[in-house]
Amino acid sequence: PCLQVHSLQELRRSASLATKVFVQRDYSEGTTCQFQTKFPPELESRIERQLFEETVKTLNSFYAEAEKIGGSSYLEGCLACATAYFIFLCMETHYEKVLKKISKYIQEQNEKIYAPRGLLLTDPLERGMRVIEISIYEDRCSSGSSSSGSSSSSSGGGGLGGR
Predict the structure, then answer these.
(1) What is the share, in percent, of the chain residues with pLDDT greater than 90?
(2) In this predicted model, what pLDDT tens digit does every residue of 44-98 receive, in sequence order?
(3) d(CA 37, CA 132)
């Protein structure tokens, strides 16, 4: 067992990709953007269930915030119509602001929680908002006992193009 603590840069440079796990969208409450909090068994020895669930629940709350229609969203829509949508050349929408917040949160989670455990979260935006992709890395010094290939935490996640 040569499991080491990694920084984000170290992980990308000195560890080899063993497999990927895909956390699927949860459509139980309609088409709002949220992901399943079901813990993938492939992560069992890598991260505590509570940390994983907390990450997914936080992401789900960010997406709910992004899709919430309030006064500012209504005003954005009115300004967009009044300016033939030119307003968006000089102003970010509420949705875009929240997506930036999500990207920053994922970056922080990778640096503080996931990379030290040999894991890497991919922003769902990079996967068309269909899945949360979690890459599982192995140290190059590990004995070749890894199982290669894609895994899926629920039905239909395999076969998505990776990097």
Answers:
(1) 57
(2) 999 999 999 999 999 999 999 999 888 888 888 898 999 998 988 899 999 999 9
(3) 11
Which has more confidence, 33 or 139? 33
Q: Map residue 18 onto helix, strand or coil.
A: strand
Closest of 8, 1, 29 to residue 118, by C-alpha: 8
CA distance 78 to 72: 10
Three-class DSSP category at 13: helix
Judge contact between 19 and 148, C-beta under 8 A: yes
Query: Residue 120: beta bridge partners?
Result: 135
**Overall size of the chain counted in residues:** 163
Closest CA to 124 of 58, 73, 72, 76: 58
Is pLDDT at 126 greater than 90 in this prediction? yes
Work out whether the CA dihedral 150, 155, 160, 163 comes out positive or negative: negative
Distance CA 136, CA 149 (A): 11
Picking from 8, 1, 23, the residue whose alpha carbon sits closest to that of residue 115 is 8
Q: Which helix (H) or strand (E) holds 15?
A: strand 15-24
